[in-house]
Amino acid sequence: MTARRSPLALHAVAGLLVAGSLLVTFATGVEERPVALAFGVLVAVGELARPPGGPPLREAAPLGAAGSLAYALVGAHAGHPTHHGVAQVVTVVAAASLLGGVPQLARGEGPVLDHLVRRVLAVGFAAVCFQPLHNRGVFDGWSGPAHTLLLLALLVLTVLCDTVVVAVLARSRTGWPFAPTLRDELRGLPGIGSAVCATGAVMALAVAVVGLWALPVFSVPLLLTQLSLRRHAAVRATYRQTIASLARATEIAGYTPAGHARRVAALSQAVGRDLGLPEPELTVLEYAALMHDIGQLSLVDPVPDGATAGLPVAQQRRIALLGGAVVRQTGADARVAAVVERQADPYPEQPPAARIVRVVNAYEEKARGRGPGGPLAALEELRLGTGREYAPEVVEALAAVLRRTGAQAGVHPPASGPGGASGRVVAGDSWAV
Question: What share of the chain in percent tops pLDDT 90?
Answer without folding.
Answer: 21
